[in-house]
Amino acid sequence: ADNIVNRYKELGKKILVPDLKYFIDWDGDGIAGNELGDPNIEKQLFFEVDTVYVPKEGGEFRVRIHSNVPYRMGKTDDSVDIPTDNILKNIQISDTTLVDNELVIKIDPTSEPFLNKNIISVFTHDKSLRSDLIIVQEGDFSNEIQNEVLKNIIQKAATAFGYSHTFEGFYSNCYEVSSSDFWFNISSHNISAGNGKVDDTWANLYFLNNDINYLQEYTGNTSAKYFNTLQTLLYYHLTVLWGAVIYSEAPIALDDYLPQTPVDEIYTNLQKKLTKCIEEFPEEKSTSFFKVSKNVSRALLAKILIHQKKYAEAKEQLEHIISSGHYELNNNREEALSSGSTEMIYAINTNDFDTHNYSQYIESGQYLPLIQYSEVL
Fold it and tell me: Cβ distance 291 to 337 under 8 Å?
C-alpha cells in the first residue's frame, strides 16, 4: 500500500489506499479481513501474567488473555526448538487449548533437576501483534546423586570441605597430627604460601566455585538459588581462612588475575543470596544438597552475621532454627555422625562421597558435618 501511495505522490496525486491486509481471508472462512478486528480501534493482545511458575509435580494452569482482536496460538517465524542435553531437559507440556479467552495448559511431572523454560505464543492472524507466556518448572532434586553433573559437584564439595575442615581442625589444635605428616606445619602454625596443604585447600575450594559458576551460567538465572547455599559455604571457609579473597560469580580461567574483594563486600553479596533462599526454600528438613531447607540458609546467614559481629541479627536466625523443632542434640559424637543423627543440618554422606582427608585425620563417621545443631546452640 505504501508503494502505491508513494508512486502517486511522485505523479503529483494524493490517494488513500485501505489496508490491504483486510482484503485477505486469513482463516479461510470466506470472509476477508474479519480476523483482524475493527481497523478503527487500537488493537491489544496480552497475557494477564508473563510467567507461570510450575511445581515439579506439574498440573493444569489457566491464564487469562486480554484481546480485542481475533488471535491464534502456535509457533511464530522466529521460534526455535530448544535442544536438550544431559543437563537441561525440556518441560513436558501434554496439552494446550484456548477456552473463552483463557489458555489452558497441562504440564507433566518432572524427575529432572534442570529444565529449559518454555514459551507459548499467541498472535494475530497477520502477526502484527504477539504475546509470549513463559513457563518455568521447578526441578526435582530428590534423586540428585544419580545425576552425573550434580554428583560431580557434590564430590568436589566433599574434597574441598574435607580439606578446609581438616585445615581448621589442625590449625585450631583440636586434633593432633604426627610431626612427620604433611599436615604438621598447619598444626604448628608454620604456614607459608609454598605449603602444599594450604595450596590444596585453596585450590579445591576454587575448583568447586568454578564448577558451580559454569553450571549456573549454563542452566540460567532460575537455577541460581540451588547453588547459593553451597557457594556461600565455600566463601565462608575461604574468608575465615584467608580474609579478603577473589570473589567471582563467573568462571575463572587459570591465567586470570583478579583483585581481592573485601570481606564485608563478599558477605553483603552472600547475605542477599541467603535471604532469597530463606524466602523461597521449604521449611521442612531436606535431604537435598541443592534444594535445602530454610534452616540451612538461616544457619549460614547466622555464621556470616556473627563474623561481622551482628549478634542480634544472628540470634534471630538461630532462634528460627531452634523453634522449628526439627533438630535436637545426640547423646554423643559418634551418634551425631551416624545415620540416626538428629543434629545434622547440612552434611556430606561419606558412604557416597570420598572425604579422604577428613575421614582419615579428623572423624570417621557417616557424615562430614557442614552445619550442626550443636553450632546453633
Answer: no
pLDDT at residue 76 above 60?
Answer: no
Residues 350-360, mean pLDDT to the nearest whole number: 90
Exposure b/e, 148-171, CB count within 10 A at least 16 = b: ebbeebbbbbbbbbbbbbbbbbbb
Alpha carbon separation from 111 to 93, 216, 221 (Å, rounded) = 14, 19, 20
Cell of 195: 605449603
Residues 127-162 pLDDT 10s? 778 999 999 999 999 889 888 999 999 999 999 999
Q: Which of 91, 175, 171 is nearest to 137 (CA)?
A: 91
Predicted TM-score of the model (pTM): 0.81
* 56 Cβ neighbours under 8 A, 6+ residues apart: 109, 110, 137, 138, 139, 140
CA gap 42, 184 in Å, rounded: 78
Radius of gyration over every alpha carbon of the chain, rounded to an integer in angstroms: 29
Res. 80 pLDDT band, cuts 50 70 90: very low
